[in-house]
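Hi F.,

I've been meaning to write this up properly since the lab meeting, where we talked about keeping a consistent format for the predictions we share between groups. The idea is simple: the sequence comes first, exactly as it goes in, then the structure tokens exactly as they come out, then a line or two of notes. No screenshots and no reformatting. I'm using this chain as the first example so we have something concrete to point to.
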Amino acid sequence: MTTLIAGLIISIALLSVIVYFNSKKDSKKKFRANCIVAALPLIIAFFIASIAVIPANSVGVQYSPFKGVLEETLPEGWHFKGVFDNIYIISTEVQTSTLTEITGQTKDSQYVEMVIDVKYKVSPEKAYEVFKQYRTLENVAVSLVSPTVQRSIETISIQYNIIEILGEKRNELYAGIEEELTKRFAINGIQFVSINFTDTDAGAEIEKAIQDEAIAKKRVETAEQERLRVEIEAQQRVIEASANKEKAEIEAQIKLIEAQAEAEANRLIAESITQELLQKMEMEARLKWGWVTVQGGSVITDIREK
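Output, unedited:
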């Protein structure tokens, strides 16, 4: 519209100058040619006003003074439009809002305060709805993002107690908040990208209580580990004693078997020594050594010089 008005003013100014300086000697043909030249700025302005350029990562929302806001948005690139239409550029790039003093109540009636960086972007398909409700991205951040994050945190945090939120279920809480934000943003034409919890605080008193509980829990875990260690060592000693007992029993059995075998061998030897064998041994000894007397298996040798 500004371009069109500027072209109109320039054309009127040029036409006024032509009329003022027009001489009666000038032909009508020359006068008409001068009028066309004077109208050129207005023609150029009309042409420029009928073109819309949508930058990258953006969509254009078209407003017509005759039809109002058109539902069909313009993608990035060059487009023709009505000369009296206005094009509002809506960025579809990722936006970041840093939110402080966002609070959530827990199921044990405690409050946790968070500092959050939330990333989001306008859905190109829903840019028309976003524009109709909020007009600008600044309004989206203030009127949509901040209260939606607050309500989402309140919805999820009430499901946990303060110990769980600041302890073992913190990640579960964050995942629930992300899921809730995704649903709430989508209803309003916004795509949820990510959320970063830069700080989560429940106050000094609660923080100290949680720290004390963590210390006590660590002591219990240490004591339990010590108990398990003692039990394991005792079990190992029992196993070693049992192994030693089995070893001793095996060795005793081996010795018993060896003794039994030796006794059996001696018995067989004793049974094998007969009177005839003794007499033979005596005779062989006499022949070799001289006078030998064999008595009950013992040999007495009388060695004489020959």
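Notes:
The first strand starts at residue 51 and ends at 54.
Strands lie at 51-54, 58-64, 68-69, 77-80, 86-91, 95-105, 111-122, 190-201, 290-295, 298-303.

If this format works for you, I'll send the rest the same way.

G.
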